[in-house]
Design a protein that fits this description.
Shape of chain A: globular
Structural class of chain A: alpha/beta
Largest sheet of chain A: 4 strands, parallel
Number of domains of chain A: 2
Helix content of chain A: 40-55%
Oligomer: homodimer
Largest interface: A-B, 61 and 61 residues
Distance between the termini of chain A: 51 Å
Chain lengths: ~210, ~210
C-alpha cells in the first residue's frame, strides 16, 4: 500500500474509497483534483454530502426521498391518486418520471423480498402500501419491480395480500426494447414478447 | 435531465458530478449509497474532503504535500540530500517511493512547461529548485518527467539553467518494461532501449 505523505490525504483517500466502484487509485485521483480545485469547491462538495445524509426526508406517503414530509409527486393534485406504481427503489421513480408517460403516484418499497440477503416483507414498506390502498380508494396497482425471482416473489406476496380488495393489479410490459434486433434478444424476453403480443391497433400512435 | 425529488439530492449529485470521471449517473449511485450508509459515514467523508482542501500544506523545500511546513521525506536525515529527483506531480513521488529504490530527495514541479496549456516556467517551482541546488550542494539531479515534448522541454529548460553549476543531470531509463514482449513494444521505446543498452554486468543482481 502506498504511503501517503499527508495524513489528511490518506484519510480522504480512505473515505472516498469506501464508496462503491471507487478504488484507492481513483480516490487518489479525485483527491488530487480536489486539492487543485477552486477555493470553496471542496467545502460545497463536503457540505452537500453531509447535508444529504443528515437532512434528507422520506415522503410519508410513497417513501420517495423528499425535502419535506410529503414529496412533490404526492402533493401534485393533477396526478391520478387512484393509480399507484410500485417500485423497488427511488432510482426507479426517476427512470419512470423521465419517460413522462405516467401520471399516477408511486410507492417505493425500499427493496424487494430476498431471503438470501435477509430482506423480508417487514423490511419493506409493504404494510404502508396496504394501509394506503385501504384509505386512498386505489383502482390500479402497477407493479414495476425487477424481473427476477425476488421481484416475482414480491409481486406475488403483494398480490396475495390485496387479492380480495378488487383492485386491478398489472405489471409493466416485458418485451423487446424499441430499436433492438430480434436476433440479439435473449430467449426469455423474446418468448415473453410473443406470448404477451398485443393487438396491432393498440400500438399505433404510441410515443416511442 | 432527470428531475430529482429532493433539492439536497440534486445538490449532492451536482457537486459529485463536477469531479473528473464521475457523471451524473455515477454521482446518483454514490448519493444513494451515502443515503443508505451508517450514521456518521457521510459526515466523515464530507469532513475529510473539506479538511483535505482547507488544511493541506505543501513542503517548503520539495513542494510535495505534507502535514507540516516540511514533509517527512525532507525531514528524514537518512535520505541522501545530494540527490534530487525532479518530478511533475505528487503522484510521481508516490510511484517512485513504492519502488523503494530511491533514497534521495524529491522536487515536485507542479506540472511541466506547456505553452498550449499556458503553463510557463514561472508557474512551476523551478526557481525554488534553482535556489535549492545552490544552497544544498546538490550532486545529482534525476529528471523523472513524462516522456513527452513538454517533458523534454522542461528537462532542457532546467538543464540549461544549471549547466554551468557542474551538477550531474540524469534522466530515468526508458526501455522495455520488465516482463514485456519485444514484439508488442512501440518502436520508439524499443529503439531507445537499443541505443541506451547497458553492459550486461550492470544488470546482474538488480531487483526486478
Amino acid at each position: 500500500m502506498a504511503e501517503y505523505s499527508s495524513k489528511l490525504l490518506e484519510e480522504a483517500v480512505n473515505q472516498l474509497s469506501r464508496l462503491p466502484g471507487i478504488g484507492r487509485k481513483t480516490a487518489l485521483r479525485l483527491c488530487l483534483h480536489i486539492l487543485k480545485s477552486e477555493n470553496g469547491e471542496a467545502q460545497q462538495l463536503g457540505e452537500a454530502l453531509i447535508k444529504l445524509r443528515e437532512e434528507i426526508c422520506y415522503c410519508d406517503i410513497c417513501h420517495n426521498i423528499s425535502d419535506g414530509n410529503t414529496c412533490k409527486i404526492c402533493l401534485d393534485l393533477r396526478r391520478d391518486p387512484e393509480t399507484i406504481c410500485v417500485v423497488a427503489d427511488i432510482r426507479d421513480v426517476m427512470a419512470i418520471e423521465n419517460t413522462s408517460q405516467f401520471r399516477g403516484r408511486y410507492h417505493v418499497l425500499g427493496g424487494i423480498i430476498s431471503p438470501i440477503e435477509g430482506i423480508g416483507p417487514g423490511d419493506l414498506t409493504i404494510d404502508s402500501l396496504l394501509r394506503r390502498i385501504e384509505s386512498e380508494k386505489t383502482r390500479e396497482l402497477i407493479m414495476a419491480l425487477p424481473a427476477t425471482i425476488e421481484g416475482d416473489t414480491t409481486n406475488y406476496y403483494i398480490y396475495k395480500k390485496i387479492s380480495t380488495l378488487g383492485i386491478l393489479v398489472t405489471t409493466i410490459a416485458r418485451g423487446i426494447a424499441v430499436g433492438d434486433d430480434l436476433e440479439f434478444a435473449d430467449e426469455i424476453t423474446l418468448g415473453r414478447s410473443i406470448l404477451n403480443r398485443m393487438p396491432f391497433e393498440g400500438t399505433i400512435g404510441q410515443k416511442k
